[in-house]
Amino acid sequence: MTVIKPEWTIYRSRGEQELFQEVSWQEVEHGSSADSIDSIVVKLDAAQRGQVIDGFGASFTDSSAYLMNQVLDEAQREEAMVRLFDAERGIGLSVLRNPMGASDYARSLYSYDDLPEGEADPELARFSIAHDEADIIPLIQRAMELNPDVKLMASPWSAPGWMKTSGSMLGGQLKPEYYGAYADYFVRYIQAYGKHGLPIHAVTPQNEALYEPLHYPSMLMPADVQTVFIRDHLKPALLRAGLGTKILCYDHNWDRPDYPLEVLEGAGDAVDGVAWHWYGGEPAAQSEVWQAVPGKEVHFTEGSGGDWIPPFEQAFSNVMRTGIEILRNHSQSFVLWNMALDEHKGPTVPGFGQSTCRGIVQVNQSDGELTYTLDYYALAHFSKVIRPGAVRIGSDCAEPDIRSAAFLNPDGKLAVVLFNDSEQDRKITLELPAPEVAHGNQQQAEVRHVLLEAKSAMSLLRQAALPS
Q1: Which helix (H) or strand (E) holds 121?
Q2: What does pTM read for this prediction?
Q3: Which of 107, 224, 304, 442 is the most exposed place for a label (fewest CB within 10 A)?
């Protein structure tokens, strides 16, 4: 019996003119093993097993959903949805983390229970997700038709104003007398989405709980408050309603690992994991908390590109290097921010000021033009080859500028993502685990050689070898 040499699919980005292009081994290979003496070795170890991946994605904010559902025409919208969510014809995004109510990227301030000033609705008699039924829900439904693996997460930027010390969706804290009502608000949201065939996989109690801007929806929620809210109100409310939705705490930057550690200690089994953002600190914080409290999930739920990092090379490199490090630090997901923004980097809530964020796609309100940004192609390097259910395996390199992440997909395919973060072209020797074959045949490890140019990215997908 002979073994068919495994087939490979390779995608490469090496500058603005070559983004996520499929290439052949002949185009990337740098020669025989004799030519690899000065190579940098990246060794994969299938015996090392890490986290199981949920996927990669972004957010259907109010602004994103409006642009895609109302500004794009039907043909453009379908093209975009296929290219975003279809695993074969597109890049197979599989995680959506959506705001519960208005965020900074919304056309107006709204919650699901808005009332005139001075009124309250603790029974949530006027609760409604009608706002989301116009644009957000139809897009999520289409995404799930294109990719049944899509998982939905939800995060509020603010409770309804009447529940808060500020009396509005801008700033303030949740009043203790409304902890129970706010927990029920989550239940009603999850149930309402469920009626549309959209199961909510996980929620966080508050987006960026330590940040209290007054020019877009926000709510301060210190760690001791979040602990009590999750342990004594949110988790019991979900259980009473028979809902298995997971609860992720924190949902803020890497620079305050003390916050999730306090919540995990105080709320215990009521918390399923921790959600992180990239606007401060380092990805190693994910591992710090994961090691301190074993068994809790790690998720990366928001990171936006924008004008603060100059395009093109620096911005693309930031997504690649940070995405790889996020995965190497135990995260099951890698979620950017707005799925779509317009040519003015909006729309934003009234009074927001100048936006500097970048969407996964750009939809021009002036002429309806649709373009795919560098974030789309950077995400593609992960989501196209690392599929939901993939398990991370070891990938080690002595050179810190050669960044790597490797996974075994549920179908047996091996996925490797490489990024050369140096200013020089590098020869890479990939030491790969042997392809699995039937009948217990033992195969030697496979060695491959590639040229990884400066600041270039490469994603490789190996078909499992089959006996002939």
Answers
A1: none
A2: 0.95
A3: 442
pLDDT at 38: 77
Which of 3, 93, 38 minimizes the C-alpha distance to 336?
93
CA 14 – CA 4 distance, rounded (Å): 31
Are the CB atoms for 263 and 289 separated by under 8 Å?
A: no
Considering only CA atoms, which of 69, 134, 120, 63 is closest in space to residue 344?
Answer: 63
Within-domain flag for 1: no
The sign of the dihedral angle between the CA atoms of 66, 91, 99, 183 is positive
Map residue 449 onto helix, strand or coil: strand
- Alpha-carbon distance of 290 to 322, in angstroms, equals 18
What are the angstrom distances between the C-alpha of 397 and each of 413, 428, 429?
Answer: 22, 10, 10
CATH code, domain carrying 44: 2.60.40.1180
Would residue 437 count as lying in a domain? yes
Domain extent at residue 27: 8-51+391-462
- Tell me the residue length of the chain: 468
Q: Check: CB of residue 216 under 8 Å from CB of residue 348.
A: yes
- Calculate the average pLDDT of the chain: 94
In this structure, the answer to whether residues 233 and 166 fall within a common structural domain is: yes
Dump pLDDT digits (tens) for 248-264: 999 999 999 999 999 99
Residues 158 and 303 in one domain: yes
Q: Report d(CA 351, CA 95) in Å as an integer.
A: 30
Closest CA to 390 of 462, 307, 287, 311: 462
In whole angstroms, give the CA distance from residue 213 to residue 169: 10
Residue 308 burial by Cβ neighbours in a 10 Å radius (0-12, 13-18, 19+): exposed
Q: What is the CATH number of the domain that holds 249?
A: 3.20.20.80
Note the pLDDT tens digit of each residue in 344-397: 999 999 999 999 999 999 999 999 999 999 999 999 999 999 999 999 999 999
Query: Domain end: 383, 409, 429, which one?
Result: 383
In whole angstroms, what is the distance from residue 415 CA to residue 147 CA?
19
Q: What separation in angstroms does the CA of 184 have from each of 118, 181, 236, 253? A: 21, 5, 10, 27
DSSP code, position 463: P
| Confidence at 310, pLDDT banded by 50, 70, 90 | confident
**The total number of structural domains that make up the chain:** 2
Q: What is the pLDDT of residue 467?
A: 43
What percent of the chain stands above pLDDT 70?
94
Q: Which of 383, 403, 434 is the last residue of a domain?
A: 383
What is the residue whose two structure tokens read 């020869």? 427
Task: Give the per-residue pLDDT at 1.
Answer: 46
- Look at residue 186 and give its three-state secondary structure: helix
Q: Which amino acid is at 134?
A: A
Contact 432, 447 (CB under 8 A): yes
Query: Residues 409, 386: contact at Cβ < 8 Å?
Result: yes
Residue 87's SS3 state is: coil
**230/358 same-domain check:** yes
